[in-house]
Amino acid sequence: MNNFSIKNLFEFNKTPLNLLVAVLGIVLLGAFLAGAAYYILHGHHAFNVTRQHPWGLLIAMYVFFVVSSTGLCIISSIGHVFGVEEFQQIGKRAIAGAIITLLSGFAVIALEVGHPVTMIIYNVLTPGFTSAIWWMGTLYGIYLVFITIEFFFLTIKVDHKWSKIFGIGGLLSGLAAHSNLGAVFGFLISRPTANGVFYPVYFILSAMITGCYLLYIIYGFKYRNDYPEQLKAMFLKLNKILGMLLGILIFFEAWKIITALYGTMPERAETILHVISSPTFIFGEVLLGMLIPFAIILFTNGQAIKPMVYASLTGMIGIFFMRYDLVHDTLIYPMTMLKRSEYQLPPTFLEYFPSATEFAIGFGGIGITIFLFYVAEKVFNLDPDREH
Amino acid sequence: MKAEISRRRFLQGSVALSIAGGVSMSPSAIMASASASTKPEDIGKTKKVATLCEMCVNKCAAFAYVKNGIVTKLDPNPYFPKSRNMLCPRGNSGLAAIYDVDRLKYPLIRDGEKGSGKFKRATWDEAYSYISEKLTKILDEEKDNRSTVAFCAGEGMAEHTFKNFYTGFGSAHFLNHASLCLATTVSGYSLTIGGYGQADLENADYVVMAGANRAEAIVTPDSMDFFKRTTGRGAKLVVVDPRFTNTAAKSDKWLGINVGTDLAFVLALTYVVIKEDIYNKEFVENHFNDFATYKKHVLQNEYTPEWAEKITGIKAEDIYQVARDFMHHAPQSIYYQGRRTTWSKNDFQLRRAQAIFSALGGGIDIKGGICFGKSIAMEGHEVSAPIYDQAKSRIDAKEAAVVGGSGTWVGFRNMVLEGRNPYPIRALFNYKHNPMANMPNSAKTEAFLKKLDLVVTIDTMPSDTVMLSDVILPECTYLERTDPAKVYGGIEPAIVQRNKVVEPMYESKPVIEIMRGLSKKVSKPLFEITKKYDEEVQDTIEEDGEEATYEEFDLTKAFEESQEDLNHHAVAKYAGAAESLHAKGVFYPNMDKYFKKLNVNEYEYYPESKKYYSVMNKKFKTPSGKIECNLSSLTKRGIDAMPTWKKEYEIAVPDGQFRFITGRHAQFTQSGSSNNKMLLDLVPTNYMWINKRVASRMGIKFGDEVEVASKVGKTTIKAYPTEKIGLDTIFFIHGFGNKSQELTLASGNGGNDANIIEDSIEPMHGATCLHDTIVEIRKV
Amino acid sequence: MARYGMALDYKSCINCRACESACKAENGVLPGRDNYRIWVGQKEAEGEFPNISIASMTYHPSQCQHCDNAPCQQVCPTNATYYDDNGVVRVDIEKCILCTYCINACPYDARYVDDRTVTVDKCNFCSDTRLANGETTTACQATCPTKVRTFGDLDDPNSDISQLIAKREYKQVKEHLGTKPKLFYLL
Ligand SMILES: Nc1nc2c(c(=O)[nH]1)N[C@H]1C(S)=C(S)[C@@H](COP(=O)(O)OP(=O)(O)OC[C@H]3O[C@@H](n4cnc5c(=O)[nH]c(N)nc54)[C@H](O)[C@@H]3O)O[C@H]1N2
Ligand SMILES: Nc1nc2c(c(=O)[nH]1)N[C@H]1C(S)=C(S)[C@@H](COP(=O)(O)OP(=O)(O)OC[C@H]3O[C@@H](n4cnc5c(=O)[nH]c(N)nc54)[C@H](O)[C@@H]3O)O[C@H]1N2
Ligand code: SF4
Ligand code: SF4
Ligand code: SF4
Ligand code: SF4
Ligand code: SF4
Ligand SMILES: [Mo]
Questions:
Q1: Percent share of chain B, pLDDT over 90
Q2: Nearest by Cα to C165 from C147, C177, C153, C180
Q3: Are residues B211 and B347 in the same domain?
Q4: With 50 as the cut, is the pLDDT of residue B15 above it?
């Protein structure tokens, strides 16, 4: 632990970038609180979700956060679980990040689930074992416990044996939780585009990619693109891993699309066709999320670090669109194509645009992440221990 | 001797009230539970009261559930054969009618310019006094010409109670919805086959429904009986309508006819069956009067399907087909009479042609055809209808060939506006009727109402007409009153009674109590006026004394008894009837024996052998006792003796313009339910139907606001482009676009058809022509 | 103990929507765009005036299918959605956490958020209103002008519904999803 006081909590190097992030963090945090207040007053009416499109930005942001958490956990485990030397230095910061993004995700989902307290009670009293949400939620709970203890043994009471044990526990529960999050969508037999094995696998894959992107960003910010050799070595490895992961992801996605279109199964093919022609998919997911980072890795032979930091920023924007589209595209095809009243247009693909409150809460979650990270950096020593 | 003659002079005759006098047994014991407000021991308990829906004309039987004095739910009541255990969406939404916050709560007297919407709250007594003063002044000035005061009413169980007041008052002017609704079809069928009848849709094999939309414009039991048997399940249905309606959706064939050309269609059908000799020979031989002339008329005029195709837009081959199929299934074939038939100038002739065509198949007074059925006698009670010497006859009698007891409303209004009335019309009593919304050309209706010195409206809601009245008397809603027991005759006749479910809210009252209070106030002062101007009355007073003479003119007599007592006595001769009417809302002889539950959904009311399918013994209620083809007596009055197509019936629609038609849908009743929260939840507003291709050419998309304008007015409404309507026709649902600011939900909601419909009348009864208006539209 | 289901003679439906208003009144369903337990589906007419396809204008009365194998029940994390003793799929408002997962999971759009309880609501065959009071019909069935609906016990071979589905052919909606719906659309 660092020497920590309220006073030094407000002391930081007032560089333009730091100031920018500080302002951003405060604004987002404020937005979160405002959104939360508005939601508490107006309930679900504060959101633009409807009966036909019951999930929206908040679910997407929740997924975004927990994917980030799982991704950081998996990537950090390369070091302290699997013992790859170069990755051991990022352990503490990555686990801290995993905890922080998970907490941010929980904060967002607590405002999406109507009765979070009831949830805690009845998750235990009358568990729904057939429910992917139950497993996902429960496993994430366990995961949080594991990685918190892991963090404890990494930073407060340094103990490598225990940190490794809990690290393994965290990794396994994280993987389980995360594939169940995929199953939350994959189990929806009502939604042919989501139903199947794709999402559980895809979720793990995209989590790892997210973890990579986040590490670039976190360390890029921390070292202002001036890295110690040690870190450079890690990044070069990370480049290769990321390149490979992106390659697999692109391959996966392509086959998913081809199989969905093949045979033109009415609901599924129509939906996918609609999805792949939407700008959020083409520019968001494909270009920003996959192609730009992938192209950079490819064309620099995995040697570029600085560009990858920037590419990771576009990558994270892409990842956001992946989460958003995941939710939206799953729900886009109405469960009935019939009109319910003579005086309305025939149903088409559903439209959804988040409300101000949803934006405030969803993106406000990033404020929580920034804030907690800042506090964590102040309170804990997240750099590798010297004696290590 | 002289006295006797005089006395008789004062009586127009006697008028049967729908209710009876005399006491046989106190019904108060029976009624107590229904009328008493919540007793402490009843709190938290649910009670069930048999009542009748009055959200529209059908009067379906209902059970109302009441908890702590509040009506919580309306359920269908299975006992009434006519309503067959159902409540339509409007019936269910009666809850929102009784608990509508905008309801009229207290008597109101105008307190500002007419139409300013300013009223002051009054007590009932103040309101009656105000009316009394105004009436005495008017009648004094008009020298007791009672006809200077007109009465109008919408349809309702208690319309008769209001009419009793009119009868006693002695005006010649009664005006009701008939000339806005069904006058032409009722008389068209009556004069031709001896009655309007009941189409036996439970047993018909083949039905042509032209301009009748039973899936949306609900008429019981037709709507319920028929659609269980359509779409390949026993009954063939041909729908003829310029729009593809919900009824068309249930048809085997839909013919999208040009508006106003049905007569050509029916004449062509007739031509085919005559030409091909496929009508019911035996029936025509024995039961038609002067068929030969009609046959010649149809053949000579060459009303061929090819001729009709050009006029109607219906393919000749379809006409051949329908004619042949109709006769193939006859006599279980019906050309459905239709109900709101105030469309165009030729409407009476159209209904005559339909009736004759239907009869050509022999499907009259027979199972599966048009039946006349039977009534059940109730004990009538005669109430005197005094004669006022100074009361002049109807002003609108010459506006059309035959102006009946309910007048030509539009003709009457226009005469007054145009100053063509031979004597002044000064006042109007209006019961349960909204002429501002339901008479074409609302600008004229407004001017008419403003022109009158006294308009008294009895309503439940602040309608547009209410807002243009001088005195507003709030009636309680149907759930808060017991109304006159009534017989519904037909194949399965029954007596029904609406029982009060809860006490009237606010200061509202049932019309019988309003009439009681009003007649008490006005009877004597009005008699004073009569005394002043009526020499006959002066003479009689001299002979018989004032008191005896006044007896005949005492307006209060008709309202002395309570509705409960009157109902009770009306059915006194049937054992158990009063109890049944109270507990079940329904009674008919042998009900206890006949009524059976068949399954979870269906009930039997009469055994098949006891149903009144055939009752006339082949003697129809026409002058000749036969089907009348040739009504030569009408020619004297300028009406064709036989249905004849005339060039003038072909109204060309100029390019870029449209012919406007109006009508119903299942979720609203005319203008009366436009503020109903539950119904607006189903359908928030009305939309203008416009052909999709035309709309896209005009750049009009779904939901766009458009202005619809005719020669007489305009209105704005949202567009609904659809292929369910033809290229030159525009339609929207009637009853929306109310002006009254007091109607929170209805005010300014949607398009108002009364604003734009031109106000011509047809020649037979002076019924209004609602479909003869050409409109222009423009996106706003 | 029964196994309630409903047979729908849907060709008789005239799209009057009495069932909708009756359900709202009976069950206190609030007004509003998304608030309904029952509805009637229709298409916009196919074809051009005057050649409209009559078949395209068939009305489809609908509500919760009370699936024997209900996706909404499977996905519920707290078992708030459950099968009651009569096989009716119901929501326990005490346990519902309003995750709205079930709304996503229902292939029939049968569920919505009820603002009275701030939990998920749906058709429950009038279990806590009519059935609890000893009625044997649902509000939507009773009120229907053309008697589209027959509600009853599928386990009782003598019930009207059992007789109907034994006698007549029927189809079911999205049967291929394996939901085993208990609404039977009579042909
Ligand atoms: N443009 C156009 N005009 C039409 C028609 C059309 O389709 N289009 N249809 C025509 C036909 S068929 C008819 S029958 C007429 C109908 O015309 P109206 O008889 O005027 O019928 P509603 O519009 O239902 O108005 C009924 C009035 O009665 C009031 N009311 C309801 N219940 C009660 C009650 O219990 N007591 C009292 N005192 N008042 C009550 C309502 O508030 C409302 O003001 O309209 C005709 N006019
Ligand atoms: N839900 C509901 N039911 C009602 C009522 C209500 O307000 N709401 N009102 C009740 C009353 S008072 C009445 S009078 C009846 C009315 O019952 P209907 O007369 O059956 O109903 P409308 O909708 O007035 O008109 C019938 C049809 O005529 C069509 N039409 C218009 N012009 C022409 C034409 O030139 N030729 C042909 N063939 N068709 C044409 C219209 O498109 C419309 O579909 O309904 C009764 N039932
Ligand atoms: S048809 Fe509907 S509104 Fe008319 S009386 Fe029957 S239930 Fe009431
Ligand atoms: S009440 Fe019956 S006819 Fe009316 S919409 Fe509902 S199911 Fe159809
Ligand atoms: S229809 Fe939907 S809500 Fe009803 S049981 Fe099936 S899945 Fe559940
Ligand atoms: S919203 Fe309620 S009923 Fe639906 S799945 Fe969640 S907890 Fe279960
Ligand atoms: S069964 Fe009851 S709860 Fe279900 S739709 Fe019908 S009326 Fe509503
Ligand atoms: Mo009417």
A1: 91
A2: C153
A3: yes
A4: no
**CB-based contacts of B618: which residues, under 8 Å, 6+ apart?**
B286, B287, B365
Q: In angstroms, what CA-CA distances link A354 with A28, A130, A325?
A: 16, 30, 13
Domain boundaries, chain A: 32-344+354-379
Per-residue pLDDT of B191-209, as tens digits, reads 999 999 999 999 999 999 9
CATH number, position B242: 3.40.228.10
Mean pLDDT of B37-43: 58
C-alpha to C-alpha distances, A60 to A57, A177, A320, A327, B109, nearest whole angstrom: 5, 16, 8, 6, 61
CB–CB of B41/B79 below 8 Å? Answer: no
Q: Which among C105, C109, C118 has the least Cβ separation from residue A114?
A: C118
B600 at C interface, C-beta within 8 A = yes
- Work out the average pLDDT over A359-372: 95
Angle subtended at Cα B409 by Cα B406 and Cα B410, rounded to the nearest 5 degrees: 155
Query: Residue B44 maps to which CATH number?
Result: 2.20.25.90
User: String of b and e for A223-246 (b: at least 16 CB within 10 Å)?
Assistant: eeeebeeebeebbebbbebbbebb
Ligand 4, atom nearest to B227 Cα: 3
* CATH topology classification for A32-344+354-379: Formate dehydrogenase/DMSO reductase fold (1.20.1630)
Instruction: Check whether B37 has a pLDDT greater than 60.
Output: no
Sketch the domain layout of chain C as residue ranges.
4-186
Q: Are residues B137 and B247 in the same domain?
A: no
Domain that holds residue B70: 7-98
> Phi and psi of A84, rounded to 5°?
-75, 115
DSSP A343: S
The answer, yes or no, to whether residue B384 has pLDDT greater than 80, is no
Name which of B73, B249, B599 is nearest C160 (Cβ-Cβ).
B599
Same domain, B91 and B113: no
Exposed, middle or buried, C150 (CB in 10 Å: 0-12/13-18/19+)? Answer: buried
Write down which residue in B43, B76, B98 finishes a domain: B98
Mean pLDDT of chain B: 93
On whether both B168 and B228 belong to a single domain, the answer is no
**Spacing, Cα B57 to ligand 1 middle (Å):** 10
**What are the backbone angles phi and psi of residue C39, rounded to the nearest 5°?**
-160, 170
Residue B318: per-residue pLDDT: 98
The two three-digit tokens of residue C91, written as one number: 């929501």
**Mean pLDDT over the full length of chain C:** 96
Q: What top-level class would CATH report for the domain C4-186?
A: alpha beta
Q: What pLDDT score does B1 carry?
A: 32
Q: Is the peptide bond before C50 cis (omega within 30 degrees of 0)?
A: yes
Mean local confidence (pLDDT), A113-118: 92
Contact B88 C16 (CB under 8 A): yes
B621 and B533 belong to one structural domain: no
| Together in a domain, B226 and B363 | yes
| Separation between Cα atoms, residue B748 and residue B738, nearest integer Å | 6
pLDDT (0 to 100) of residue B29: 30
Q: Provide the pLDDT for residue B443.
A: 97
Residue B57 alpha carbon to ligand 4 centre in Å = 20
Write down the residue that tokens 């997407």 correspond to.
A60
Please tell me the distance from the alpha carbon of residue A247 to that of residue A249, in angstroms, as a whole number.
5
The pLDDT tens digits of the residues spanning A262-285 come to 877 888 888 999 999 999 999 999
A108 Cα to chain C: minimum distance (Å): 13
Q: Is residue B582 part of a domain?
A: no
Residue B289 covered by a domain: yes
Q: Is residue B518 part of a domain?
A: yes
Put simply, whether B216 touches C (Cβ < 8 Å) is yes
| CB burial readout B258-295, b (16+ within 10 A) else e | bbbbbbbbbbbbbbbbbbeebbbeebbeebbbbbeebb
pLDDT, mean over chain A: 90
pLDDT at A388: 42
**Token pair 């009361």 is at which residue?**
B391
Counted residue by residue, chain A has a size of 388
